[in-house]
Design a protein that fits this description.
Largest sheet of chain A: none
Helix content of chain B: 55-70%
Number of helices of chain A: 6
Distance between the termini of chain A: 64 Å
Distance between the termini of chain B: 65 Å
Low-confidence stretches of chain A: none
Order of helices and strands of chain A: HHHHHH
Structural class of chain A: mainly alpha
Strand content of chain A: under 5%
Order of helices and strands of chain B: HHHEEHHHHHHHHHH
Low-confidence stretches of chain B: none
Oligomer: heterodimer
Strand order of the largest sheet of chain B: 1-2
Number of domains of chain B: 1
Structural class of chain B: mainly alpha
CATH superfamily of the largest domain in chain A: NADH-ubiquinone/plastoquinone oxidoreductase chain 6, subunit NuoJ
Helix content of chain A: over 70%
Number of helices of chain B: 13
Number of domains of chain A: 2
Shape of chain A: globular
Largest sheet of chain B: 2 strands, antiparallel
CATH topology of the largest domain in chain A: Four Helix Bundle (Hemerythrin (Met), subunit A)
Radius of gyration of chain A: 21 Å
Mean pLDDT of chain B: 83
Largest interface: A-B, 22 and 27 residues
Strand content of chain B: under 5%
Number of strands of chain B: 2
Chain lengths: 171, 354
């Protein structure tokens, strides 16, 4: 049990507990704050895998920008426990079925992985070494092998941005 | 017992460095509040605080005692834990920035080379961005948890302002990164020690970065979150005692840290101007590092003075003007700067042939 293991178990527990709290919290603001904590734990995992760039970008983009916008919307809607309306029974039923389907497929993936894992048995993920997640390697990969998908996805972002401006514009 | 195989000496060394840097930033922030009042006084042709101690030098301590001894009120309708969390988050985010700033060269002590930088991670500048973007939560959570409409409005203003100006800041930064080819602040400073400072190559980029830093620190003319004539007192209206003190203090620490980042990125960091630092190391050894720290502090103080000068000179923007400036002037200018820099860097790589 070295320090990497301790950190791994701590971060995993933190991520699971916070993710649970996101669902359980009555107050949507608290849910969002727990979700931010989940992102922190996941960033911690990235750092353990020596993917510093991914870790930081995860924090900047998700915890720093997207969650702020989530908070924005929820704060403006002023959702409180008292004003939360009772949901339709059918709505709840659909939610249960959809969640159940997701659970089944996730379990399927895990069990399949177990049969695959015989050849991976005894192997662990690269910890604290390897340069796959460092920014230099990532940049070279993105701009040489994957340059076309990368550029196309940036065009996608641009079109989304133009769409947002068009929708938001008062005429 | 071989429980944790760690380099304990390194750990102690870094711990000592962290404690020294945090205490130093707190001390400087304390006297920055004093300096702000003195600068305001000079600009407005009045004496300023001069009662506590010689020249009023004990004024910040007196203010601190006042803050600590005031009654700490938590409004009954506030969300209690978030109300406490808000100022703590603001302060933590402000202090966390200091981890990647290179405060000086290396010191040799007991055959160990000690870098005067807590962590030279290879994504240093992105780390600062992540921390800055987390600083918004301090304002937002505090403003929302107060359960006061004015606080909420101020918090929303603060958050949207911070997000808008972060974009232009990032874009102006990309130009610097293209020039230096690295994200590590230590490396950026080292490159400037031998050549020109980056501000020579990036005057427009520096101007954009500086304006965005003003906006990120909620300094005038961008202090919309605490516009007292529109919002009573801003996002910290319901706060009292040291919680309020934390919010006010975090602003000054943010100022120090953003000055340090600007000095490191554009003004050579701890580089002593007109002096070859390597030669100095050969002649006076460890003292060089201390002089370097002093030089960086001087640069920081000059920046802070400019911040204050601007505060007492320029009036506050209207909110739509602020957004217009951010989205319609800063971002296009930063994009232009980025494209030009990219073109020049490419041309230089091609030995000035098209």
């Amino acid at each position: 049990m070295n320090i990497t293991h301790i950190l791994f178990w701590f971060l995993s527990a933190l991520a699971l507990v916070s993710a649970m709290m996101v669902v359980v919290s009555k107050n949507p603001i608290h849910s969002i704050l727990w979700l931010i904590l989940v992102f922190f734990a996941i960033s911690g995992h990235y750092i353990l895998l020596n993917a510093q760039f991914l870790a930081i970008v995860n924090l900047i983009v998700y915890a720093g920008a997207i969650m702020v916008l989530f908070l924005f919307v929820v704060m403006l809607m002023n959702l409180n426990k008292e004003t939360e309306q009772q949901k339709n029974v059918w709505m709840k039923l659909t939610g249960v079925i959809a969640g159940g389907c997701f659970l089944v497929s996730t379990c399927n993936v895990i069990f399949n992985a177990q049969s695959v894992s015989r050849e991976l048995a005894g192997k662990t993920a690269l910890m604290k070494e390897g340069s796959i997640g460092l920014i230099g390697t990532l940049g070279k990969a993105l701009f040489s092998n994957y340059v076309i998908p990368f550029e196309i996805s940036s065009v996608l972002f641009l079109s989304a941005m133009v769409g947002a401006v068009v929708i938001g514009k008062k005429d | 017992m071989t429980l944790l195989t760690l380099d304990w000496i390194l750990l102690i060394e870094k711990l000592a460095l962290i404690i020294v840097i945090i205490l130093a930033s707190l001390g400087i922030a304390l006297y920055t509040t004093f300096a702000e009042r003195k600068v305001a006084a000079i600009l407005q042709d009045r004496p300023g605080p001069n009662r506590a101690g010689p020249f009023g030098l004990l004024q910040p301590l007196a203010d601190g005692v006042k803050m600590f001894t005031k009654e700490d009120i938590i409004p009954s309708s506030a969300s209690k834990w978030l109300f406490i969390l808000g100022p703590g988050l603001a302060m933590t985010a402000a202090l966390m920035t200091c981890a990647v700033i290179p405060w000086g060269g290396t010191i040799e002590l007991f055959d160990r080379k000690i870098d005067l930088q807590i962590a030279d991670i290879n994504i240093g500048i992105l780390y600062i961005f992540a921390v800055v973007s987390l600083g918004v939560y301090g304002i937002m959570i505090g403003g929302w948890a107060s359960n006061n409409k004015f606080s909420l409005m101020a918090a929303l203003r603060g958050a949207s302002q911070a997000i808008s100006y972060e974009l232009a800041m990032g874009l102006s930064l990309i130009a610097v990164l293209m020039l230096t080819g690295t994200l590590s602040l230590g490396e950026i400073v080292k490159q400037q020690q031998t050549g020109w400072w980056n501000v020579v190559y990036q005057p427009l980029g520096f101007l954009i970065f500086f304006i965005c830093a003003l906006a990120e620190c909620n300094r005038t003319p961008f202090d919309l979150p605490e516009a007292e004539n529109e919002l009573n007192f801003g996002y910290h209206q319901e706060y009292s005692s040291m919680k309020l003190g934390f919010y006010l203090f975090a602003e000054y620490i943010n100022m120090i840290m953003s000055s340090a980042v600007m000095a490191s990125l554009y003004f050579g960091g701890y580089d002593i101007p007109f002096v070859d630092d390597a030669h100095l190391y050969a002649s006076i050894g460890n003292w060089t590092a201390l002089i370097q720290v002093g030089v960086l502090l001087t640069k920081i103080i000059i920046f802070i003075f400019v911040f204050m000068w601007i505060r007492w000179t320029i009036p506050r923007f209207r909110y739509d003007q602020l957004m217009d400036l951010g989205w319609k002037s800063m971002i296009p200018l930063a994009l232009f700067n980025m494209v030009v820099t990219g073109a020049v860097v490419l041309l230089k790589m091609n030995h000035w042939h098209f």
